[in-house]
């Protein structure tokens, strides 16, 4: 009986072990199934967001440049730029701005529905133009991708008689006795030969002489000063009568401007407000507009330790004056330092240029206003009378 009991006990323990093993697997399976069910339920409960397209407007021009080809001078030509709204929202054309008074815009469609087209009518007045011309027009619209676009109008303006240039300018020094000459070219584009009468000059300070280059086709008009010249700015008209009914009169405008015999630029030298971390070199140009050669000497600066040099760029005419400031230099409050140069000109023996600090308060005008020497500063804000020379720095 005992062996049987022992065997039964072993078997019983084995059965109990199997029960535990399968029970554990069963519980694990149930838990996994429950989790999967919960996850599936959660996924089903979440609504997937849908992407909706944003309504936008888009402008597309058939062309952005139009060439009129050859246009007779004085003629007004027109062209309409066609565009399409390729977007999904109404397109608003806000503004059409020509870049010149010779170009104007008509009435355009300010709102264009999606898929529809509109047009911008433009016109160009060729009066006063000659040769190749390009004009621009800026169109502003409500487009999220691009808010404006530039349209171009081109033309080759034909004129019966070309005048190049139509305006001449003379600049001369005080008391100058030099005779200066400008040449104006006159070309006949007509098939019939052209004849010109002698020029009529409205101001005796100018003289004009007509020369024939090619009979009936090409001429040159030599316009010259006739010293002594006026001390103030003046203008004159040179008028030529022609044999052409299309342009019976030609008019060339001439202007004379007197400059000081000696000029300098800039009218002041500017230093940074903070102490210099390295050597700094500032420069200025001095130019003579007189008939006699100019000589400069004795360059100096009222600031101790600053060295001033003169470089002659064009003998007797153009000079470059540089001032070298040492590293560590600090402008002192209340000082009005100057750079000075002596000249050989009897009317302008000394040039004085103030040295100012960047951002200096307006309460120190002495440092900002050029000293009134008998020399005039250059008054050429957009086009200097001589090539600028860049300042040099030394380290």
What does this protein structure show overall?
The chain has 395 residues and is mainly β. The chain folds into 3 domains: 59-158, Immunoglobulin-like, CATH 2.60.40; 161-259, Immunoglobulin-like; 262-377, Immunoglobulin-like, CATH 2.60.40. It is 11% helix and 45% strand. The chain has 1 helix and 26 strands.
Give the key terms.
395 residues; mainly beta; Immunoglobulin-like; 3 domains; five-stranded mixed beta sheet; 26 strands; disordered C terminus
Q: Main beta sheet, described?
A: 5 strands, mixed
State the order of secondary-structure elements, H for helix, E for strand: HEEEEEEEEEEEEEEEEEEEEEEEEEE
The N- to C-terminal Cα distance equals 115 Å
The CATH homologous superfamily name of the largest domain equals: Immunoglobulins
Report the top-level CATH class of the largest domain: Mainly Beta
- Measured on Cα atoms, how large is the radius of gyration? 42 Å
The low-confidence runs, each spanning 5 or more residues with pLDDT under 50, are: 1-20, 38-52, 361-395
Q: What class do helices, strands and sheet pairing give?
A: mainly beta
Number of strands: 26
Write the CATH fold name of the largest domain: Immunoglobulin-like
What is the chains' assembly state? single chain
| Beta fraction | 35-45%
Strand order of the largest sheet: 2-9-8-4-6
Helix content: 10-25%
Architecture per CATH nomenclature, i.e. the level-2 architecture of the largest domain: Sandwich
How many individual domains? 3
Average predicted local confidence, pLDDT:
81
Number of helices: 1
Globally, the shape reads: flat
